[in-house]
């Protein structure tokens, strides 16, 4: 599995180096391998995967948009990813963290929240705008190394889950980063919009979906184990002739499989250099939602049926 061998960098590092498919053969490559690997590591809990050094989403950003020199320079970094701000979440084009060019540096100002591994990682890939008035095209990503003056972790969230992994709020105050830490091209290409930075997501979304799939898989299997003597899933009896708990489990299985297959499809498309922005988005949205509903339903089924 190409997960974290240093040269490849990370959870996303290997996968974002899309392989040469010029021979026209379909293949299952690094994206597929990563998805399967991540799902297995996240069986029942995503904390382990998120806590392993080098597995940062920022590494995926580096691999997706960095030039060869940057790829080499940051190959050993464990990079977190900082997009979300107090006033912007789902709509990442609305970020207000700014980057101002000053000689050989960019000066960052703003606040990022919910940065996974923001404290432990040794670098953070920060999304900032060169000119808010221009819109999405002016959004660029910058590698800010730990210890850079002006970058301060101001809070660690107290969470109910994923407690093995830190989730940080980071403030940037006149934080000077070398100009060569801007990932990709510094030019503002209105036509491309923020296609450059968004390419990161085409690769990371199936990975995040795989994390959810690992949690869902474990919840489903554990529920079936706990209810073993109450259910008989023979897959032959029509659904209207089975117990309600069995019907519920069939439905959950179908939902889980749908999420898993969508995820593998998006990864396969990435491996075969097919544009997958839509599929990557759908699989992440679907897997997250299904896992949420599925785990809640499993708790519900166990609490209702175990003691019957
Ligand atoms: C454990 C954890 C780790 C995280 N790690 C990172 C990280 O490493 N880096 C990072 O940058 N961020 C991270 N995040 C932040 C995460 O990406 C955001 O929470 C996410 O982008 C959603 O933003 P929000 O919380 O502001 O919700 P909102 O954007 O305010 O959304 C709230 C609700 O409204 C819905 N909604 C939003 N917009 C629309 C719309 N236009 N139409 C219909 N419904 C809509 C959403 O689906 C959601 O249900 C993390 C979050 C968590 C919980």
Please list the strands of the largest sheet in the order they lie side by side: 2-3-7-6
Radius of gyration computed on alpha carbons: 21 Å
What gap, in angstroms, lies between the N and C termini? Answer: 44 Å
Number of strands: 7
Structural class: alpha+beta
Largest sheet: 4 strands, antiparallel
Shape: elongated
Oligomer: single chain
Which hetero compounds are present in the coordinates?
A: flavin-adenine dinucleotide
Helix-strand pattern, N to C? HHHHHEEEEEEEHHH
Q: What is the overall number of helices?
A: 8
Q: Which percent range describes the beta-strand content? A: 15-25%
Low-confidence stretches: 1-16
Mean pLDDT: 89
Provide the helix percentage.
Answer: 40-55%
Jot down its keywords:
elongated; three-stranded mixed beta sheet; alpha+beta; binds flavin-adenine dinucleotide; 308 residues
Give the gist of this structure.
The protein is about 40% helix and about 15% strand. The protein has about 300 residues and is of the alpha+beta class. The N and C termini lie far apart (about 45 Å).
Describe the structure in your own words:
The model is unreliable at 1-16 (pLDDT under 50). This protein has 308 residues and is an alpha+beta fold. The radius of gyration is 21 Å and the shape is elongated. It has 8 helices and 7 strands, in the order αααααβββββββααα. It binds flavin-adenine dinucleotide. Residues 57, 80-84, 89-90, 114-116, 162, 167 line the site of flavin-adenine dinucleotide.
């Amino acid at each position: 599995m190409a997960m974290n061998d240093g040269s490849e960098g990370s959870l996303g590092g290997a996968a974002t180096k899309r392989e040469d498919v010029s021979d026209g053969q379909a293949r299952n490559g690094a994206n597929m391998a990563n998805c399967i690997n991540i799902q297995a590591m996240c069986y029942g809990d995503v904390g382990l995967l998120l806590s392993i050094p080098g597995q940062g989403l920022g590494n995926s950003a580096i691999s997706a948009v960095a030039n060869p020199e940057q790829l080499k320079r940051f190959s050993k970094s464990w990079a977190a990813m900082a997009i979300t701000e107090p006033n912007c979440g789902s709509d990442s084009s609305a970020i207000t963290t700014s980057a101002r060019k000053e000689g050989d540096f960019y000066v960052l100002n703003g606040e990022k929240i919910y940065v996974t591994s923001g404290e432990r990682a040794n670098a953070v890939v920060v999304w900032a705008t060169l000119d808010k008035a221009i819109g999405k095209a002016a959004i660029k990503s910058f590698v800010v190394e730990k210890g850079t003056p002006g970058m301060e972790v101001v809070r660690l969230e107290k969470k109910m889950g994923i407690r093995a992994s830190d989730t940080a709020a980071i403030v940037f105050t006149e934080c000077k980063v070398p100009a060569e830490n801007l990932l990709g091209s510094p030019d503002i290409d209105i036509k491309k919009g923020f296609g450059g930075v968004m390419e990161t997501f085409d690769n990371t979304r199936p990975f995040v979906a795989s994390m959810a799939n690992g949690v869902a898989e474990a919840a489903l299997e554990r529920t079936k184990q706990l209810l073993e003597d109450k259910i008989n899933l023979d897959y032959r009896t029509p659904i209207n002739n089975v117990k309600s708990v069995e019907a519920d489990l069939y439905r959950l299985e179908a939902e889980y499989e749908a999420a898993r297959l969508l995820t593998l499809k998006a990864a396969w498309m990435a491996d075969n250099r097919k544009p997958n922005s839509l599929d990557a988005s759908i699989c992440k949205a679907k897997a997250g939602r299904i896992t949420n509903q599925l785990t809640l339903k499993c708790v519900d089924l166990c609490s209702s049926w175990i003691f019957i």
